[in-house]
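Morning!

This is the sequence you dropped in the shared folder:
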Amino acid sequence: MEDIAHKIENTLNEIIIHSGNQNELLVGECFCNHNYTNTQKHILMILKNENTNNKDLAKKLNISQAAVTKAIKLLLEENMLIAEKDNKDGRILRYKLSKEALDVATEHENHHQRTINSYKQILENYNTSEKEIISKFLADLIKNIRG
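The structure's back. Tokens below.
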């Protein structure tokens, strides 16, 4: 039992290290030609489907508004985003994708799908009962981590 507990600890630490302190961990390579962070690419992916503001992006990404502001700064400088004042409250900026950003946003969306597909491929090695145990374990692990 203790050996498995150590494997869990090592696995979680490996995930943290591999994620490089990003807000998500994707499997495989990104095929876009930009060196944006996963956070920046995820912002672009969100904005592909909806125009929104800093506060809402922070909620969706589960990061601080300051982190969103930092991520957005470079995207604005590189003309990947367009900032517009909100119609109802001119103090609020709403962001939308520029034409140049669409390919990056689409590739990030595809990268998410490739990640899900890789998990599905791994799960093909397990029967239904084992998958149920894995699912329950993951739910319990998350509950334990959150406290």
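Headline: The helical segments are 2-19, 38-49, 54-61, 65-77, 102-123, 128-146.

More detail when I'm at my desk.
O.
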